[in-house]
Predict the 3D structure of the following.
Amino acid sequence: MSEPLPGRIGSFPARAGPAPYASGEPSSLADILERVLDKGIVIAGDIRINLLDIELLTIRLRILVASVDKAKEMGIDWWEHDPSLSSRHAGSALERENRRLRAELDELRHDRITGRDTSRAVFDEDAGRTGADRHEHGEER
Amino acid sequence: MTHPEEHAERAEQDDRVAQDDRVAHDRSAGHVVYVYAVVEAAAPLRDRLAALRGVAEARVELLSETGGDGDGSGRPGRLALVVSSVPRADFDEAALTRNFEDLAWLERVARAHHDVVGAVAARGTVLPLRMATVYEDGDRAGRALSERHETFARRLAALRAHAEYGVKLSLPPAGAVSRTAPAAPTDSAVPGGEGRPAGPGRAYLHRRRAQRQAREAVHAQAGPAAAALSEAAARHASEHVRHAPQRSPLSGPSQNVLNASYLVPDARADAFRAAVARVAERFPDLRVEVTGPWAPYSFAMPPSGPDPAAGDGPDEAGPAPAREAS
């Protein structure tokens, strides 16, 4: 597929010209992710993903991707090889980290139940929910 | 020398294989329906969509709403979903959970989603959906659309002939400040500093102090600049919303302090840009960036909290953004 995608950023509606003082670069990944992941209509599809996982992920993304495009231009692509940032290259380090965070959560909740250092237990009970909202209305036919 | 029976049997087998193949590609078995956006069914989109490839390189199609009063095909304000049939194996729950953690996959799908939404927005009013809204089949997607017809139709009407623009204000990197900042004190401000060649230690201290003061002067401009930008931009916008500032070690030492979106009528887009540019000129030490036009991602949900008709659970309400009509 060498044919360029119609509707790329450059061919976005000519309802207004390009910003005269903007950098002139295509939309940054950070700007796009900010919109397609965080904005837009939310309607519950049939297939849902665990929001807790995504929440942890987007926090990482906020830290990570603000100018991935620029970094790539400069030849900086270390995150693609950093096992903690890409599940593609090293199994799923993020999954491991999520597990670790959940283990910490469980420990905190356990501490709260057993009365150990309850003062710092700021987590909502719901925040510890891991699989409860995972479901798929799978109607295989 | 094959027996006719044998030949027939083989042909039958081939038929079965072909059929299995078709079943594997059938929407209900191997595929699910990925939804990009809600549009008005009357919009002249089909040609445009035929040329597009969406998520997973899939064809992009229009799916008209089902149910309602009769077939409703002639009804004005009839809505449609922009969809693709995508492999279930990549978009079922387990795969999505895994894929969302893969930045390369996420970027690919996010850009494909964004490109389709942008191409549709170029032809008409669009309500973009959040990335990765997936239905088992077209019927279920169509029903989800019909159930929310009124909410979507109202929102589409409010967004007609509007586009979203982003406005970002950032502080420059620390090293860049002293070159351009005004009012950096000179030696003449230091008693006894005039006309005497300063020693290296003394010059160093002066330089450090000048840099610090310049930096503080730039920081002090951020508040007034943000206020002036917000005010100027909102004057030309129908609605606006503030997003969380973007912070990143990759973006270097420059610090994003204002990150907002404006819903601007097409007729006022030039005035909007000009107003923002005028404010930017008053603050040459700060970086002002305008992005867009975007499809109205940040304004797809009605401004005053979740619409009672829009959802049946907290999943559907989404986070309520701090947003006002301007």
Residues 184 and 279 of chain B are 22 Å apart (CA to CA). The longest helix of chain B spans residues 200-235. Confidence is low (pLDDT under 50) at residues 11-27, 67-74, 178-189, 305-322 of chain B. Chain B touches chain A through 86 residues (CB under 8 Å).
